Amino acid sequence: MRRRRRRRRGLALLVLAVLFAGIAYAAGYLPGGGDHAAEAGSGEPVRKVSPLGEPLSGREDLPEPPDAIKLKRTPASAAYLAVAGELPDVDRESIKAVYRSEDDPDWAAVRFGLEDEEGDHVLFLQKEGRAWEVRRSVLTDEPDYPENEQAVLGGVPEDLAGSLYTVAEAENGLPSDSAPVGEPPDLEGVPDMGQPRFSGTEPFLEGVPSAERGRIEKGLSEVREVVERYDGVAGVYVRDLEGGWGYGVRPDEEFFSASVIKVPIMIAVYRKIDEGELSLSDRFETEEWDWAAGAGWLQWEDPGEVYSVYDYLWMMMTQSDNVATNALLRKVGGIDYVNEVSRSLGTEDTVLMQKVTSERGAVPALDNRTTTRDMVVMMEKIADGTAASPESSQDMVDLMFLNVLDSWLVDGLPSETPVANKSGWLYQCYNEVGIVFHDDRPYAVSVLSKYGPADPEAAKPDLTEISERLWDVQDGGTEGGEEPSEEEG
To answer: Which of 131, 205, 301, 448 is positioned for an S-S bond with 255, CB 3.0–4.6 A?
Structure first.
């Protein structure tokens, strides 16, 4: 994928108004509101609480949250509530203007301008009854390649979708007859949400035996140091495939999935093969809907080229080809089927919202998303032969062994270590998941990040060090030959 020359401002302070953030959380507006924040040293999720800090269940005297329709009664208020809980540096003054569609008055676009960003975040909203709902978001950072953003704007009225760059031209005094006329944002009654609040970095242990606990805690504290100094938000999760226990930092924080979303798509394809609805040798054409920029060579071919299912799988998992991915997504039955597969795996926080492209939404809740724990669960099920049939699961491992793309996960491991992996990155997001075949302690691992450096080379050292330290944690378990206790931590 293309590198983008941008800087980001530092991650900001805690939410200024916890009360209002809690209200928005309860109403379902904050991205990541469905996450299961975990207690340090426990496999149990923390109970969701009300704006007053009390459990949502078992209390009858809690105040009613404000009317959701009132909070989202204008496009500006709905757009602000959708991103203010997470997007760094966004505030009420970040909204440049609101643009109403003349083609369809039930649609609008809201533009957010952030300092040090080369483009604007644009959210597209549709009116449902009396409330506005966000449908899509893009970053307008590629005026020379407007088709890249257009790839994810299917269904958005043409006058709004086509105005991504003409609006910018009009704002700078350039002639642009096709640009819609903007209006001031209306945020009356909507609280200032303050700066984002991400999951804490307390070490998380899940089912770790008491005999292993001290060693894991020590190693994980070193991983935590790297996570905390990373210039962005990072999370990690590991499952020991022999012991069946896990540990990490921010296991349930929502991240942009980037190309690691191709793992559940791969599982969905093999499920269809197991059910007899597809065969690796089946051949079918690419279609116009499949097109997306990014990795892979199919983006340079015209629709109508014919490849086999295996060809598409190979291009998707070894070259991270987005067109091949979308062709397979269409062939298995679309977004709904892949999300159904994710739920069946117990990875409900992994959601495919739109086809796979090189473009990134404003926040994970408006894009394809996942968590480090979800991705490790998928990798573990592939490794133990239960993601699909044992034969299909082994095929998936074999495919990931063929991955030839750059890998900060592999770079952090001893040379010649067998790794079946899938990486992916978007602007400021660098992700990788894999199965590391340590001789004594094989493990599934996921390292995800967001809002990091614009330059991948600036992000790579910390991500590589996380991989190194995780290897040390696993490798330390082989010293002395002591077998772990079955006692739960």
So the answer is: 448
Q: What is the DSSP letter of 282?
A: -
By the 8 A CB rule, do 448 and 234 touch? yes
What residues are paired with 255 via a beta bridge?
A: 370
How do the domains of the chain map onto residue ranges? 18-183, 204-481
Please state whether beta strands 233-240 and 283-285 pair in parallel, antiparallel, or not at all (unpaired): unpaired
What does the block give as tokens for 369? 């998303």
d(CA 47, CA 45): 6
Q: What is the pLDDT of residue 193?
A: 86
pLDDT digits (tens, 9 = 90+) for 30-75: 333 333 333 344 444 333 333 323 333 333 443 444 566 788 999 9
Q: Tokens 């203010």 correspond to what residue?
A: 84
- Spans of the chain below 70 pLDDT: 1-68, 168-179, 477-489
Mean pLDDT, all residues of the chain: 84
380-402 as b/e: b if 16+ CB within 10 A: bbbbeeebbeeebbebbbebbee
d(CA 69, CA 80): 14
* pLDDT, tens digit, 9 for 90 and up, residues 289-329: 999 999 899 999 999 999 999 999 999 999 999 999 999 99
Q: Name the nearest CA neighbour of 353 among 133, 58, 109, 112.
A: 133
Contact indicator for 163, 103 with CB cutoff of 8 Å = no
Rg (C-alpha) for the chain, rounded Å, is 23
Give the C-alpha separation, 339 to 336, whole Å. Answer: 5
Q: Which of 419, 257, 489, 279 is nearest to 351 (CA)?
A: 257
- d(CA 168, CA 163) in angstroms, rounded, equals 8
Q: Give the angle subtended at the CA of 368 by the CAs of 366 and 373, to the nearest 5°.
A: 115
DSSP secondary structure code for residue 49 in this structure: B
CA triplet 82, 83, 85: central angle to 5 degrees? 95
Beta-bridge partner residues of 283: 308
- Cα–Cα dist 162/203, whole Å: 46
SS3 sequence of 356-385: CCCCCCCCHHHCCEECHHHHHHHHHHHHCC
Total Cβ atoms within 10 A of residue 285:
11
Total H helices, total E strands in the chain? 15, 15
pTM assigned to the model: 0.83
**Contacts (Cβ under 8 Å, ≥6 apart) of 275:** none
**Amino acid present at 439:** D
Q: Does domain 204-481 have CATH number 3.40.710.10?
A: yes
Cβ-count burial of 147 within 10 angstroms (0-12 exposed, 13-18 middle, 19+ buried)? Answer: exposed
- Type of residue at 230: Y
